[in-house]
Amino acid sequence: MLTILFWVLSVLMLGSAVAVVLFRNPVNSAMSLVFSFLALAGLYITLDAFFIGIIQVLVYAGAVMVLFLFIIMLLDLKAEARRTLNLAATAGGVAVLGGFALLIVQVVKSLPASAQPFHALPASAAGDVAGVGTALFSGFNLPFQIIGVLLLVATIGVVVLSRRELR
Questions:
Q1: What is the C-alpha separation between 150 and 39, in angstroms, rounded?
Q2: What's the pLDDT score for residue 122?
Q3: pLDDT band with cut points at 50, 70 and 90 for residue 86
């Protein structure tokens, strides 16, 4: 049952990731990205990584996508106009995609570890949350704060750049 759920969530995640690229409307693309993040969180949960799955929903599907949607609405992006397909470019893209998929299959088949099942991960004594919190706030406190300041500066920059001039 868990294997079936894993494959269903994998197909849903990949399908919504393709929809992010194919949709012309930025809001529809952002909502497809949210669905992709939710399917990825489900994949983490099927792999018994409950903390990472919950953080995936809270941080990426929640906070980051709210920022993306805020910036999309702030910039007032319209749907991209339909263009005619260039047959040569489409055929070239399909050929590159097929070559890339063939290369990935050959690399995976050449690895001896790809035929063996994964061994069970040992259960941690302290739990996921305590280990992540200790590692984050003891060894990575300064980089964590720098990333927060970078996100704040980027958000202020978007607001300043999208502000309309008052006349």
A1: 28
A2: 67
A3: confident
Q: How far is CA 102 from the centre of its chain?
A: 24
pTM above 0.85, yes or no: no
Tokens found for residue 88: 């040569």
Q: What per-residue confidence (pLDDT) applies to 80? A: 61
For residue 48, give the 3-state DSSP assignment: coil
Whose CA is closest to 20, among 87, 12, 42?
A: 12
The Cα 117–Cα 131 span in angstroms is 27
What is d(CA 137, CA 106) in angstroms, rounded to the nearest whole number? Answer: 42
Contact 30, 72 (CB under 8 A): yes
For 40, 121, 154, 162, the CA distances from 151, given in Å and listed in that order, are 23, 34, 5, 17
Eight-class DSSP state of 76: T
* Region of residue 124 (left: phi > 0; alpha: psi -120 to 50; beta: else): beta
